[in-house]
Backbone:
């Protein structure tokens, strides 16, 4: 697949680039600061730009089979939806947070919303935009991320509250799940919760 990765220089995005190239995909990195990509081996291309800029995103999505947005937000969702509709590119996977729909554990969710309310409200807005976009979207709601070595597996469910798995998830395993989602047409139109394995 030809996959455009938005937020390619982020801590999750870098894993998506490396793993995607290792799987044999034609990966194009999209980043505001592409100079941070010290290892470009295996990449099909690198595009410098801001994902809020429609003209740049419009050019970047041309000819792609899918987009993985390793950074979420309503501004990015807006430009992606417009650009992808125009280009006829339908498959998009966007990151979000497990805390956006969660109600349990109550104390942890309440504290998360207390400290990150503005970010979660924006992610909820982005999710809603994707859900009515007409695109073949998958929303990937991660639990708390860390930079530990990958386990090579994750717990996935489709409920508001986690049905299992660990509270923490490595970014490498999250990247694996994002790529798995992009490859799996059955996940189009779904919002999935992703936790670390037990």
Residues:
């Amino acid at each position: 697949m030809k996959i455009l990765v938005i937020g390619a220089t982020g801590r999750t995005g870098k894993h998506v680039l490396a793993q995607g190239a290792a799987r044999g995909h034609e990966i194009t990195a999209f980043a505001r600061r592409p100079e941070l990509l010290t290892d470009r081996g295996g990449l099909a291309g690198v595009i410098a730009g801001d994902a809020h800029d429609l003209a740049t995103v419009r050019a970047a999505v041309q000819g792609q089979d899918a987009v993985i947005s390793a950074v979420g937000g309503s501004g990015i969702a807006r430009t992606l939806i417009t650009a992808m509709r125009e280009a006829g590119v339908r498959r998009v996977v966007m990151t979000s947070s497990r805390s956006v729909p969660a109600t349990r554990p109550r104390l942890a969710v309440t504290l998360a919303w207390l400290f990150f309310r503005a970010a979660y409200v924006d992610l909820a807005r982005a999710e809603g935009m994707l859900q009515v976009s007409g695109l073949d979207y998958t929303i990937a709601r991660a639990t708390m991320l860390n930079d530990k070595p990958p386990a090579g597996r994750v717990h996935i469910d489709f409920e508001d509250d986690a049905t299992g798995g660990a509270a923490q998830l490595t970014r490498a395993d999250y990247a694996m799940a994002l790529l798995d989602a992009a490859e799996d047409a059955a996940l189009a139109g779904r919002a999935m919760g992703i936790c670390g394995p037990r």
In short: DSSP finds five helices and ten strands in the chain. Strands lie at 2-6, 26-31, 43-48, 66-69, 91-97, 136-142, 144-146, 155-157, 168-170, 190-195. The radius of gyration is 16 Å. The longest helix spans residues 106-131.
